[in-house]
Each structure stands twice: as structure tokens, then as C-alpha cells.
Amino acid sequence: MRNVTDRTSNPFGLRPPFDRSDPDDRTAVFGYGDANADFHVIGDYPGIHGGESTGVPFTETESGLAIQDVLRETGFASGPRDEPVLENCFLSYIHMCSLPDGEAPTAEGYADLERFFDAELRAINAHILLPVGAQATDHVLREYTTQRRRFDLEMGALHAAEIRGRGFMVVPIEDPAEWGDGDFAAIVSRLEALLASDYRQTKGVATTVG
Fold first, then answer.
1. CA atoms of 36 and 135, how far apart (whole Å)
2. Residue 163 in contact with residue 144, Cβ under 8 Å?
3. Is the full-model pTM beyond 0.85?
4. Which terminal residue of the chain has fewer beta carbons within 10 Å of its beta carbon, N or C?
5. For the chain, how big is the Rg over CA atoms in Å?
């Protein structure tokens, strides 16, 4: 048992470099959950995946709550929707800072926050990385695997696949806004299979897509 910390929200006390949030929103939506987790769910930014009001990733928005439904179905999440209790699972964003309503992150914004996300990811040191959507998947495949050149980032094809990383297994999740029939079941099935396996042996797993 690593026992990194027992803090649930922002367990490492990160302080982002800028505040561009609307007046009633949180400055940033920090990482949240079990800091000793083996499974790390990685979203894009609060405007898409939620948390500007709650301060908790994957709350409030339709896409965020759909991911939370997957976590509840697989036993990672329980309790209130706006402040779930997480076990063996950690949630964070590659762009944690809130932005004015309707504004998307710039390339510079992602770059400014990259070191904060990277520090948190390495501190959690999960075995399974679960990036949600094309932006997060692109970042994780580029930075934490040698596999990015093999894929054209077609999220429908990558959804619920297993991709070997540098000490991680990456399982991309298509953004729920794009899900079709069977996509919810596919990621639930993949997670259940991983939980039933010796998933901690991630350095020895083969890359499989489909």
C-alpha cells in the first residue's frame, strides 16, 4: 500500500499559474479521488467535462456524468453525484483551469498547464491511464507512450482499446458526446476485464486495438 496521501481533492496542493474563470466558477478543477489509485481517468478541461461549480472532475456536464456512470457501473464510484466517493480511481484534467463560458483552451494554455498535470500523473503513478476524448488521448499517447505515430486518433476505433505505454497501459475513451450503441458497454466490459486480470503487470502487456 503506497499511502501517498489521504487528501481527496488537490492532494498535492497544486497552484495553477493563471485565473481566467467566470466570477462564480472555481479557479481550477483539481485532481480528485484516491491518490493511491491504479486507475487514472484523464479529461480535457472543465468546460467540457464539468466541475466549474463543484470543483470535482466529471460532474455537472452530460459528458462528465456519463463517465461517472461508467465508474459507478464498474464499482469505482459511489455516493453523491457532485462529490463521489472514489476507490482505486483518480480523476484529473490536462487543462485544470476554468475559462469564461464558451471559451476553449489555447495551445499556450495547454502548454502552461502541462507541467502541473505531469507532476500529478507521476505522483499518482497509476497502472492504467484512461484519457477521455481526442485532446487528452493525443496528449497521453504522445507523452507517456511511444505509440502515437501508429494511430490517426480516430476515437471510435481507439475507444476501449489497450495500448502499451512506458510503464502504463492506456485505454482511450471516446468522448461520451460521440458515443453510439454499445460504447458504454464496451468501456465497462474493458474495465471489468482489467479488474479481473493481473493489470499491475502493465509493462508486459501487448498493444491491442479493437
1. 25
2. no
3. yes
4. N
5. 16
Place of cell 495551445: 107
Residue 54: how many other CB atoms lie within 10 Å: 19
Nearest CA to 159 out of 142, 173, 175, 143 is that of: 173
Distance CA 41, CA 108 (A): 23
In sequence order, what are the residues at sequence separation of 6 or more whose Cβ sits closer than 8 angstroms to the Cβ of residue 157?
209, 210
Looking at the chain, the whole-number percentage of residues with pLDDT higher than 90 is 79
Nearest Cα neighbor of 30 from 47, 48, 15 is: 15
Confidence (pLDDT) at 207: 42
**Helices within the chain (DSSP H only):** 46-49, 62-73, 107-124, 133-144, 155-158, 183-195
- The gap from C-alpha 172 to its chain's centroid, in whole angstroms, comes to 9
SS3 92: strand
- pLDDT tens for residues 75-129? 999 999 999 999 999 999 999 999 999 999 999 999 999 999 999 999 999 999 9
> For residue 140, with 0-12 CB atoms within 10 Å meaning exposed, 13-18 middle and 19 or more buried, which class applies?
buried
